[in-house]
Write a structure and sequence with these properties.
Elements (H helix, E strand, L loop, with lengths): L3 H6 L9 E4 L5 E3 H17 L7 E5 L4 H12 L3 E4 L6 H11 L3 E4 L4 H11 L2 E4 L6 H8 L14 E6 L9 E5 H14 L7 E4 L6 H14 L2 E4 L5 H7 L5 E4 L1 H8 L14 E4 L6 H11 L4 E6 L3 E5 L13 E2 L4 E5 L13 E6 L11 H7 L6 E9 L5 E6 L4 E3 L2 E3 L1 H8 L5 E11 L3 E10 L6 H11 L8 E4 L13 H10 L1
Parallel strand pairs: 1-10, 3-4, 3-5, 5-6, 9-10, 9-11, 11-12, 12-13, 23-24
Antiparallel strand pairs: 1-2, 7-8, 13-14, 14-15, 16-17, 17-18, 18-19, 20-21, 22-23
Helix pairs in contact: 2-3, 2-6, 4-5, 7-8, 10-11
């Protein structure tokens, strides 16, 4: 028995001199050197006491060594647990304790703050920074070879913790099969090959940057321009050397704000992918007018990686996320009965495929609630499928507003508000109402001198039934978002309660 993920992503590159990473200082990291570095980390982790099946929690910056550490975990049969660098010590304490991590790897500057956290969780503390840290030094001293630990398709490769906006964060268990099947599907669907150069500015503690961007390029054999994060000037400087970019909507709106971003700059690009949050139709239009490129929008989740994508060849429709990817079965079901709904009706999106996770760590009841016996995962997202088969995300089930017994889908109102003059973007949430149970409130971000609220009320009255009309319109400087650009509606509901 081999090692499913390692054999596909890393072993084929052993000894290769092709460039894997283009680094910010102008240097390059060859594939063969990266594979050797992974083996050094596998040895360093083993010497710290990690054994196959153990969890390694990692809260460090985006570095080449961070990717090599993940590869080393895969080679040694360990389970990688990436954590947002923005988490506080209290939050890290929960994740490390819940995962029962054998090792916690943090930035050297955080060693003092996290020492007690690691001790309290029974984990060994190691550090990794840019050219420094205890595990960095241990890897430097280790041989560039390590026995590849046998791991099959169903063995776990990673835990990704959900955001926890509605309660305790859940550790989504992802297997070798989950990660590899999705990478293979995306390489084919998005036409990646060894000639591609991906402009990589996403974080790598999240599925988008780590399991989509990185795994796809490893499988295709292409290179990545590896940026520490989103820096407008750096992206514009690097773009003529790239063929593809994956980003969140904020990336594209910021690029459009710069006059240097035009057709000439993007002449060598073949693909722009957007996800993690909805892309405004206006951004689609402005991007195509400016560059001649049509952004490819897709839909995925922590628990499933990618489920749906607009086509590489064919119409990429603004406001939709396209079609289910090959190997993914998608159904729209009634949230109460679980019965499949007719085409065009709104219901909960459920998906099944090799990409769907194995369940939530130490949460069998929650797993049973969201993973059906027939293999379908209840995503919690509301959507519909149109007559042409395109999937549209309407919102989260928990964001559904029930007013006077009627269902109100915030996305329907937001789509109209976003088209109004003077509005950059909007978000609609439900707030308690003594007469109707809940009522919609609209938060607006202004642009171009601001909106005419009377005109907006008139347009809403013309286009939507009365029960869907927002009770209030609140102007705010910006919508609260998480690291991946998703609007945090729980925060807006709290804000609405203060008015």
């Amino acid at each position: 028995m081999g090692n499913t993920l390692y054999d596909a992503l890393y072993a084929p590159h052993t000894g290769k001199r092709d460039t894997f990473l283009h680094l910010p200082d102008g240097s390059r990291l060859a594939y063969g050197d990266f594979v050797a570095r992974a083996a050094q980390f596998a040895r360093a982790l083993h010497d710290l006491g990690a054994r196959p099946g153990d969890r390694v929690a990692v809260q460090v910056a985006k570095l080449p060594d961070t990717l090599a550490l993940f590869a080393g975990c895969t080679q040694a049969g360990l389970i990688f647990v990436p954590l947002n660098p923005g988490y506080t010590p209290d939050e890290i304490g929960y994740f490390v304790g819940d995962a029962e991590a054998r090792i916690l790897v943090c930035d050297p500057d955080d060693e003092a703050a996290l020492g007690d956290v690691a001790t309290g969780a029974g984990a060994h503390l190691a550090t990794l920074g840019d050219g420094r840290g205890t595990i960095h030094e241990a890897a430097n001293a280790a041989p560039a070879e390590f026995p590849i630990v046998a791991r099959g398709p169903e063995d776990l490769a990673a835990f990704l913790y959900t955001s926890g906006t509605t309660g305790r964060s859940k550790g989504a268990m992802l297997s070798h099969r989950n990660l590899l099947s999705n990478a293979r599907t995306l390489v084919e669907a998005w036409r990646f090959d060894a000639d591609d150069v991906l402009l990589h500015a996403l974080p790598i503690f999240h599925t988008h940057g780590l399991f989509v961007g990185t795994n796809v390029m490893l499988l295709a054999g292409g290179a990545m321009i590896f940026q520490p994060g989103f820096d407008l000037d750096a992206l514009i400087e690097a773009m003529p050397r790239a063929t593809a970019m994956m980003g969140v909507p904020t990336f594209y709106t910021r690029l459009l704000s710069d006059e240097r971003f035009d057709r000439d700059l993007t002449a060598g690009m073949r693909l722009f992918v957007s996800g993690s949050a909805p892309l405004l139709a206006e951004t689609h239009r402005a991007f195509e007018e400016r560059t001649g490129h049509r952004i490819l929008e897709r839909y995925g989740m922590t628990e499933t990686n990618m489920n749906v994508s607009n086509p590489y060849d064919g119409e990429r429709r603004a406001g939709t996320v396209g079609f289910p990817l090959p190997g993914v079965t998608l159904e729209i079901r009634d949230p109460d009965t679980g019965a499949a709904l007719p085409q065009g009706e709104i219901g909960v999106i459920e998906v099944r495929g090799d990409n769907v996770f194995q369940g939530y760590w130490k949460m069998p009841e929650k797993t049973a609630e969201e993973l059906r016996d027939d293999g379908f995962f209840i995503t919690g997202d509301l959507g519909r499928i149109d007559a042409d088969g395109y999937v549209t995300i309407v919102g989260r089930a928990k964001d559904l507003i029930i007013s006077g017994g009627y269902n109100i889908y915030p996305k329907e109102i937001e789509a109209i508000l976003d088209e109004q003059p003077g509005i950059l973007e909007s978000a609609v949430v439900g707030v308690p109402d003594p007469d109707f149970g809940e009522a919609p409130v609209a938060f607006l971000v202004a642009c171009d001198g601001g909106p005419d609220l009377n005109a907006i009320r008139t347009e809403i009255s013309r286009t939507l039934a009365r029960y869907k009309h927002p009770r209030r319109y609140e102007l705010i400087a910006e919508l609260p978002r998480n690291t991946m650009g998703k609007v945090q509606k729980a925060a807006l509901r709290e804000l609405a309660a203060q008015y």
